């Protein structure tokens, strides 16, 4: 294996690809991180100890003194996603998702050994499949063999139901290496959502009465997608051990992730001045009910809260130290949520890139 793997991250976000290489223990050099969002660049630099500047990919045109091994790109998915407006990504359409063609321009210029692309599963739907096929054909015309597979984060150690299509393209002159590459096998999930929750959460993360009214559809006009039905089916879904796919604005949609805290059992008694008070208990166990008032227990209704930014970053495969670096750099909680929802799950890209490096350079 060569001494150092070189790479460029396009639509870099907070650097899931860089994190994957670090986790793999691979000596690497990120030649450039192309990202227009200044707050994402701020977090990228904080997490990875770099000093990149925000860049518009449509204006990007650089050369390097050394060959590029990898190009990683997670081009915008909003116009392919079922949660978006389905505007698509046709070349010249001007949509955010059409920026994938900028990657093709850069690949043609730099001719890396391997290109990895991540996007939403809906890219393979009948409505958008022509965009995906156009990408594969363009990569073939540029001299690459490609293979793709839909991977779910839950199959790679993260309790999040997040399906994404990953495409790996390897230069045709590396035929044997392409044949040696295989997508990673699924692994049993041993971690549950509750294992990633913080022990103590600030009151501001709990759902307010106003937001609860919104989720319950209070004053909502008749709609094809009633909020109450989606909200109720979500928070009482059967499998609470796995999170729904993270969004960029966690806690503001009925289908987002919410934590329904266990029933709090409290004792009703009287204090020194005979005033009535509640003594909260979180163990969910009551004492034997007697005729003595202080021994009786009541159930306090469940409380609902959204995930914290740290919990969201954990669900994307990042470590607490990563988000703490971003926080210390002054990145707001709103941006931290946004960055988590926009990122690639580190575990998934790590498994793919680990296999690609093994195929290209030998294990």
Features:
about 375 residues; Rossmann fold; 3 domains; 3-stranded antiparallel beta sheet; about 20% strand
CATH superfamily of the largest domain: Vaccinia Virus protein VP39
Number of domains: 3
- The appropriate CATH architecture of the largest domain is 3-Layer(aba) Sandwich
Q: What would the principal axes of the Cα set say about the shape?
A: globular
- Give the CATH level 1 class of the largest domain: Alpha Beta
Cα(first) to Cα(last) distance is 8 Å
By helix and strand content, what is the structural category? alpha/beta
Strand order of the largest sheet: 2-1-3-4-7-5
Q: Which band does the percent of strand residues land in?
A: 15-25%
Rg from C-alpha positions?
Answer: 24 Å
User: How would you spell out the order of helices and strands?
Assistant: EHEHEHEHEEEHHHEEEEEEHHHH
Give the uncertain stretches in residue-range form.
263-271, 273-300
Give an overview of the whole structure.
With 363 residues, the protein is an alpha/beta fold. It folds into three domains: 5-189 and 311-361, Vaccinia Virus protein VP39 (Rossmann fold), CATH 3.40.50.150; 199-261, no CATH class; 264-300, no CATH class. 29% of the residues lie in helices and 19% in strands. It has eleven helices and 13 strands. It has helices at 16-24, 38-48, 100-110, 129-141, 175-180, 209-215, 227-235, 309-314, 320-328, 333-342, 346-361, and strands at residues 5-10, 28-34, 70-73, 114-120, 144-152, 160-161, 163-171, 243-244, 258-260, 264-270, 276-281, 297-300, 304-306. It has a six-stranded mixed β-sheet, sandwiched between helices. The termini are close together. The relative contact order is 0.15. Residues 263-271 and 273-300 have low confidence and may be disordered.
């Amino acid at each position: 294996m060569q001494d150092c793997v070189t790479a460029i991250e396009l639509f870099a976000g907070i650097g899931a690809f860089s994190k994957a290489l670090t986790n793999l223990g691979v000596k690497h050099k990120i030649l450039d991180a192309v990202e227009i969002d200044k707050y994402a660049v701020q977090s990228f630099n904080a997490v990875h100890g770099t000093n990149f500047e925000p860049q518009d990919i449509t204006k990007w045109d650089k050369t390097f003194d050394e060959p590029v091994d990898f190009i990683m790109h997670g081009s915008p998915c909003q116009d392919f996603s079922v949660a978006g407006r389905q505007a698509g990504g046709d070349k010249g359409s001007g949509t955010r998702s059409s920026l994938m063609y900028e990657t093709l321009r850069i690949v043609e210029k730099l001719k890396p050994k391997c290109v990895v692309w991540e996007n939403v599963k809906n890219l393979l739907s009948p409505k958008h499949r022509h965009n995906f096929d156009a990408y594969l054909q363009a990569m073939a015309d540029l001299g690459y063999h490609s293979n793709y597979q839909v991977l779910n984060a839950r199959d790679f150690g993260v309790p999040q139901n997040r399906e994404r299509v990953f495409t790996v393209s390897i230069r045709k002159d590396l035929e044997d290496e392409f044949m040696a590459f295989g997508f990673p096998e699924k692994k049993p999930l041993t971690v549950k959502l509750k294992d990633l929750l913080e022990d103590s959460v600030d009151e501001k993360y709990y759902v307010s009465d106003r937001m609860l009214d919104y989720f319950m559809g209070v004053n909502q006009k008749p709609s094809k997608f009633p909020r109450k039905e989606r909200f109720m089916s979500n928070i009482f879904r059967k499998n609470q051990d796995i999170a729904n796919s993270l969004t960029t604005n966690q806690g503001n949609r009925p289908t987002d992730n919410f934590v329904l805290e266990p029933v709090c059992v409290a004792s009703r008694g009287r204090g020194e001045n005979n005033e009535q008070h509640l003594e909260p208990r979180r163990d969910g166990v009551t004492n034997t009910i007697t005729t003595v008032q202080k021994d009786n227990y009541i159930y306090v209704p469940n409380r609902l809260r959204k995930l914290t930014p740290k919990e969201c970053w954990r669900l994307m495969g990042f470590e607490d130290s990563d988000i703490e670096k971003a926080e210390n750099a002054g990145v707001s909680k709103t941006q931290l949520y946004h960055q988590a929802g926009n990122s690639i799950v580190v575990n998934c890209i790590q498994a793919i890139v680990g296999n690609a490096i093994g195929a290209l350079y030998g294990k």
